[in-house]
């Protein structure tokens, strides 16, 4: 069984193959905090970047990490090599269909009456 490390070095891989990091995080750091870090470090020149933490999904070893978990709790899905670099993949969720429909409905609800 792997020993839980106090510090983990993590690099975030974006969908276009570019990276953010590496950066060192404590094992007590939550996944939500990691997402905030990704959001803060997101390259400004990239299109379709995340607007909020909810738009970001972190994937490690094929598992989507949950916001309420800490790195220590996710240790089974992370690097087992002490002092090794952990790679996490970052996926940005596009706006949901519900958000798109709401926007389209707002545009369609205008009154266009003509009185002759």
Kindly summarize this structure in a few lines.
This protein is of the alpha+beta class. It is about 20% helix and about 25% strand.
Brief descriptors of the model:
26% strand; Ubiquitin-like (UB roll); elongated; alpha+beta; 116 residues; 5 strands; 2 helices
Question: What are the SSEs and their pairings?
Answer:
Blueprint: E1 7-13, E2 19-26, H1 31-41, E3 56-60, E4 63-64, E5 85-92, H2 97-108
Parallel strand pairs: 1-5
Antiparallel strand pairs: 1-2, 3-4, 3-5
What does this structure look like?
With 116 residues, the protein is of the alpha+beta class. The protein has a single domain (7-92), classed as Phosphatidylinositol 3-kinase Catalytic Subunit, Chain A, domain 1 (Ubiquitin-like (UB roll), Roll), CATH 3.10.20.90. It is 20% helix and 26% strand. The chain contains 2 helices and 5 strands; from the N terminus they run E-E-H-E-E-E-H. The chain has helices at 31-41, 97-108, and strands spanning 7-13, 19-26, 56-60, 63-64, 85-92. A 5-stranded mixed sheet has the order 2-1-5-3-4, with helices on one face. Strand 1 (7-13) and strand 2 form a beta hairpin. The radius of gyration is 20 Å and the shape is elongated.
């Amino acid at each position: 069984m792997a020993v839980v490390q106090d510090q983990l070095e993590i690099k975030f891989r974006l969908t276009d193959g570019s990276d953010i990091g590496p950066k060192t995080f404590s094992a007590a750091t939550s996944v939500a905090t990691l997402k905030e870090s990704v959001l803060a470090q997101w390259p400004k020149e990239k299109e379709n970047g995340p607007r909020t933490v909810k738009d970001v999904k972190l994937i490690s070893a094929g598992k989507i990490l949950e916001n309420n978990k800490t790195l220590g709790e996710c240790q089974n899905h992370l690097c087992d090599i002490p002092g090794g670099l952990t790679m996490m993949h970052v996926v940005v969720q596009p706006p949901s269909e519900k958000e798109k429909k709401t926007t389209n409905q707002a545009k369609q609800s205008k009154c266009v009456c003509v009185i002759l």
